[in-house]
Amino acid sequence: MIKKGILITLEGNEGCGKSTQIKLLCQYLRKEGHSVYLTREPGGTHIGNMIRRILLDPKNKEMLPACETLLYMASRAQLIEEVIVSKLNEGQVVLCDRWLDATLAYQGYGGGVDIGWIRNLGRVVTAGLTPKVTIFMDLPVLTGLKRAVSFKKADRMEQKKILFHKKVHAGYLAIARREHRRIRHLKIKADDTVWVVHEKIKKIVQHALSKNR
Ligand code: TMP
């Protein structure tokens, strides 16, 4: 039985399988009797979903890095205050597909936005709320990008150059090293099945939940 809420986030490059895995994890935890709230960034609220559409629309080519950063932060601010804080106070397991780490990796390491500025903004927007555990799904960049665009039209972020996505990946590695207590680095091979990855994620989350009692 969970006594208090816990925030768990998943991160990774494009096409790493994060969204599939977070859904499987949610189903598994619910079957185990946990009360689980599944959400994502950008999005997760009415306002956040509108911001998401602006951010991912390939037509918005002129969007500048600072504007992009602030829009991701705006969606996050709305999600945390409108939804996440209350779900955690209800004692739920909150699973969030991406978090502040994504802004550091994509806009900071990938887009060249000042990392210190992002961290400062992040502190304000998250009001100090940090995930208990973050799973960084590390699939080779090119494998992931090919997967991501194989089943849908590339969005504005996926359309960015390969060099950008390589910098994002390097950024995630740096963040995972810096915060190795919170971030679990899960290396994924191109031929790992969904179920192999699911089992690994289950183990990490079971451990986090057992420590949260
Ligand atoms: P998704 O593919 O995980 O739904 O995320 C949408 C895109 O937004 C993806 O390309 C990653 C990007 N992103 C950022 O660039 N910065 C952020 O802070 C977040 C949350 C996502």
Structure overview:
- Helix content is 55%, strand content 13%.
- With 213 residues, it is of the alpha/beta class.
- The longest helix is centred in the middle third of the chain and has 25 residues, at 65-89.
- Bound molecules: thymidine-5'-phosphate (TMP).
Named CATH topology: Rossmann fold
Largest sheet: 5 strands, parallel
Oligomer: single chain
CATH domain class name: Alpha Beta
CATH level 4 superfamily:
P-loop containing nucleotide triphosphate hydrolases
Describe the global form: globular
Q: Looking across the biggest beta sheet, what order are the strands in?
A: 2-3-1-4-5
What's the SSE pattern?
Answer: EHEHHEHHEHHEH
Strand tally, please?
5
How many helices?
8
Brief digest:
This protein has 213 residues and is α/β, with parallel strands linked by helices. The protein has helices spanning 18-31, 46-56, 65-89, 100-110, 115-126, 141-150, 162-178, 194-211, and strands at 6-12, 36-40, 93-97, 133-138, 183-187.
Descriptive key words:
213 residues, alpha/beta, five-stranded parallel β-sheet, 55% helix, binds thymidine-5'-phosphate
List the helices and strands and how they pair.
Layout: E1 6-12, H1 18-31, E2 36-40, H2 46-56, H3 65-89, E3 93-97, H4 100-110, H5 115-126, E4 133-138, H6 141-150, H7 162-178, E5 183-187, H8 194-211
Parallel strand pairs: 1-3, 1-4, 2-3, 4-5
Helix pairs in contact: 1-8, 2-3, 3-5, 4-5, 4-7
The structure holds thymidine-5'-phosphate.
Thymidine-5'-phosphate binds next to helix 4.
